[in-house]
Specification:
Length: 473
């Protein structure tokens, strides 16, 4: 993130929703407090509820207070916030929204940058986009960008439809698709480490790497997300987006320049090399689970077959990775709670270690890069952990994921956004699993207890190749 101050008029559809209150408004406040936003910035929130500007500013203040650990707030920030009650299906409401946008832009002298953030269900993309265009909002002088949250569609077909709707009003380079994991600093470092250290990139292949584990376990339940989660499950909530984006970041070829265009080109190439799953492969390489008690959660069907856990063996058909399995796992109500990538290095034949040689990327809650190597000690081997020495790196306040995303879109920087071409490949891979599930017998759910590491079949997924999951408990 640069030191240049960002400016622009930000329209937040879904301005009273959970994402706005829990992430977006606090992120904007922090950017403002750190001097990353100029005084030529304004935010107009749009939602169905009736409230005044002052009532919305009070809502925003409470949201920031609930998430920000700093002692004092930047009071001036809240004066940059405005609210307009908007039914996204009504053109008349957008005409009033246009007046609110122009009034806010005039007050803070915002001249040439407009961002429309869709924190709304895909079912209203069509009318929202149509009304933005027909109301004349998109004709206001300046550049216009639209930012869309996941999930982007329910399958390949619907994703294609939604993208077509956006293209009716915006150019391709004006469409920003969010996967907030790409805004996480630790995820960004997985690529930069290889880019700035060619020696490490030199071993990033099947000659030196045995397998890779990408783990996103969660120790909490679905909470109040029952209706959404029961419709989507772990495969769509985590695998179709976050896990495949992390995998492509880890496994892609290093571009000759760290630019958004070249990074996304390499990630797309990697995703295209992940073959679709056949029914036999789904039976052998995909494990799904559901925790005991899930069917008693609020707004969940009593006979639900929705998975709250998936573990998948992914194969990449490329010269670099042929023969190297990538194992991914995620789930709810597990014993662990972390995001970690473990790159398991090959060892000499006929050697046995208690810990495998590996490079570990810790994404959250801990962050950093470490290395486990084995060495001999009195004719025995023992693992040695290599970490940065204390005091060798300056303590810095790293930006949260949404701080990076919001700042970048205001600056027109696409570095930490995915592309529709990638999303299309991610749906291809995911849909091949879902279509096979429809042909297979119903799973025997529930198949793991709360607080366990997951279903036993997930252990067998690795043990058949002589591997074990690396747990942090």
């Amino acid at each position: 993130m640069s030191n240049q101050k960002a400016s622009g008029l930000f329209v937040l559809f879904g301005g009273t929703g959970d994402l706005a209150e829990g992430a977006l408004l606090p992120a904007f406040h922090k950017l403002y407090r750190q001097g990353k936003l100029s005084e030529h910035f304004a935010l107009v929130a749009a939602s169905r509820s009736e409230m005044s500007n002052e009532e919305y500013r009070d809502l925003a203040r409470e949201a920031v207070e609930n998430t920000d650990t700093e002692d004092s707030l930047a009071d001036d920030f809240f004066q940059h916030l405005f609210y307009q009650a908007t039914d996204n299906t009504e053109l008349e409401d957008f005409e009033q929204l246009s007046e609110a946008i122009q009034k806010a832009a005039k007050e803070f002298e915002v001249t040439d940058s407009f961002v429309y953030y869709y924190s709304i269900p895909p079912s209203v993309f069509d009318e929202t986009t149509t009304n933005l265009k027909e109301s004349g909002i998109l004709d206001l002088e300046g550049n216009h960008r639209v930012v869309v949250e996941k999930p982007f569609g329910e399958d390949s077909e619907s994703a294609e439809e939604y993208y077509g709707l956006l293209k009716n009003a915006f150019n391709e380079d004006e469409i920003y698709l969010v996967d907030h994991y790409l805004g996480i600093n630790a995820v960004q470092k997985m690529m930069s480490l290889r880019y700035y250290n060619p020696a490490l990139d030199g071993i990033w292949n099947n000659d030196y790497i045995e397998h890779v584990q990408i783990s996103l376990p969660e120790n909490f339940s679905i909470g109040t997300r029952g209706a959404f989660y029961d419709e989507n499950g772990a495969l769509l909530d985590m695998f179709q987006n976050h896990l495949l984006q992390i995998l492509s970041t880890v496994a892609m070829d290093v571009p000759d320049e760290l630019t958004a265009e070249k990074l996304n080109k390499q990630k797309l190439s990697l995703l295209k090399n992940i073959t679709s799953f056949t029914k036999d492969e789904v039976e052998q390489k995909v494990v799904r689970g559901q925790y005991k008690g899930y069917r008693e959660e609020e707004e969940v069907e009593k006979d639900s077959l929705t998975e709250t856990y998936v573990a998948i063996e992914v194969s990449i058909d490329s010269e670099r990775w042929r023969g190297v399995p990538f194992y991914v796992r995620t789930g709810k109500c597990l014993e662990e709670n972390h995001n970690t990538v473990d790159v398991i290095l090959r060892s000499r034949e006929n050697t046995t270690f208690t810990e495998p040689n590996r490079i570990t990327f810790s994404i959250q809650p801990e962050t950093g890069i470490s290395m486990i190597l084995n060495q001999a000690d009195s004719a025995q081997t023992k693992p040695v952990a290599l970490h940065p020495e204390a005091g060798t790196s300056e303590e810095v306040d790293l930006p949260e994921a949404y701080e990076t995303i919001l700042y970048d879109v205001l600056q027109g920087d696409r570095m930490h956004f995915t592309t529709y071409a990638q999303v299309k490949e991610q749906w291809r891979i995911t849909d091949s699993i879902r279509s096979s599930w429809k042909e297979l017998s119903d799973p025997d759910f529930p198949n793991y207890e709360k607080g366990e590491v997951g279903p036993k079949e997930a252990e067998e997924l690795l043990s058949k190749s002589g591997y074990k999951w690396l747990y942090r408990t």
